């Protein structure tokens, strides 16, 4: 098992990355909020395919949490995270404290349009993506990485970050990696630990329902009917549905015709746990 180098300050981070650059090495970054699972370690593995080194960042970003969301209850396990990342082959872990990211007097926010204002996650968490974009922009510039690895499970986030990096001419390639799933199809997520045994079985319906909707659309069913059927299925099984919708796969705008690249996205509550998933059409 590789033992990743742990750095907690920007100065230490830049000393290490400057050494890599002097050796002619390329490197990827995997931004996370910790609670590392196999979805994250898969991103590390994908980062290693594209570059010589991988940095994983672990930072529970307070700007992503609204007033009613409990920042203090977000799962944290630094020792376990370091062990899992070492087993995955990660070379360095950047674990800044909030003051390192948002020093005294910090007053800048990246404000977004486009995919960040698509009426999906932003409808339920209006300030979420501005917080994501602000911290990700900082992590991109702090690490200076060549590649940034993001999972497709958080599909809107992937499109927001990709658009932001392009719009701001950040010299980094954002790479989307297909969702890592359990053997039964459930998308890997840090939130899955909150599901009861019964809910864990019920949760499979979110992926199966949107997968069936995608099949129906490919078979000729109109978009709205397919979404209605998927929504009804989830509600019948006890989900509180926030949305089930089909969007343009790049812009996340409502599609104008069936020939566009399409993505079905869903978010629903099962008990006290909110699950999201998406599939291509």
UniProtKB/TrEMBL annotation:
Cellular component GO terms, alphabetical: cytosol
Leading EC class: ligase
Binding site for ATP: 33-40, 151-154, 180, 188-191
Protein task: Catalyzes the condensation of pantoate with beta-alanine in an ATP-dependent reaction via a pantoyl-adenylate intermediate.
Record's miscellaneous remark: The reaction proceeds by a bi uni uni bi ping pong mechanism.
NCBIfam families named among the record's database cross-references: panC
Membership in a protein family: Belongs to the pantothenate synthetase family.
Protein name in UniProt: Pantothenate synthetase
Organism of origin: Aestuariivirga litoralis
Name of the gene this protein is made from: panC
């Amino acid at each position: 098992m590789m033992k990743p180098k742990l750095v907690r300050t920007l100065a230490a981070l830049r000393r290490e990355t400057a050494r890599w650059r002097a050796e002619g090495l390329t490197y990827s970054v995997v931004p996370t909020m910790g609670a590392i699972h196999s979805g994250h370690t898969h991103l590390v593995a994908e980062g290693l395919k594209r570059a010589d080194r991988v940095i994983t960042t672990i930072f529970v970003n307070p700007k992503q949490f609204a007033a009613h969301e409990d920042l203090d209850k977000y799962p944290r396990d630094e020792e376990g995270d370091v062990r899992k990342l070492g087993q995955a082959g990660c070379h360095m872990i950047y674990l800044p404290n909030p003051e390192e990211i948002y020093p005294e007097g910090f007053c800048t926010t990246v404000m977004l349009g486009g995919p960040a204002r698509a009426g999906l996650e932003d409808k339920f968490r209006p300030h979420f993506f501005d917080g994501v974009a602000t911290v990700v922009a900082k992590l991109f510039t702090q690490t200076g990485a060549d590649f940034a690895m993001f999972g497709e499970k958080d599909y809107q986030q992937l499109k927001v970050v990709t658009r932001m990096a392009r719009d701001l001419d950040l010299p980094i390639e954002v790479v989307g990696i297909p969702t890592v799933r359990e053997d039964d199809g459930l998308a890997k997520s840090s939130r899955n630990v909150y599901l009861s045994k019964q809910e864990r079985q019920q949760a499979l319906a979110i992926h199966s329902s949107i997968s069936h909707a995608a099949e129906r659309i490919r078979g000729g069913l109109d978009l709205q009917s397919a979404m209605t059927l998927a929504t009804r299925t989830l509600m019948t099984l006890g989900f509180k549905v926030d949305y089930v919708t089909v969007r343009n796969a790049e812009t996340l705008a409502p599609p104008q015709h069936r020939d566009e690249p399409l993505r079905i996205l869903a978010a629903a509550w099962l008990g006290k746990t909110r699950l999201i998933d998406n599939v291509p059409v």
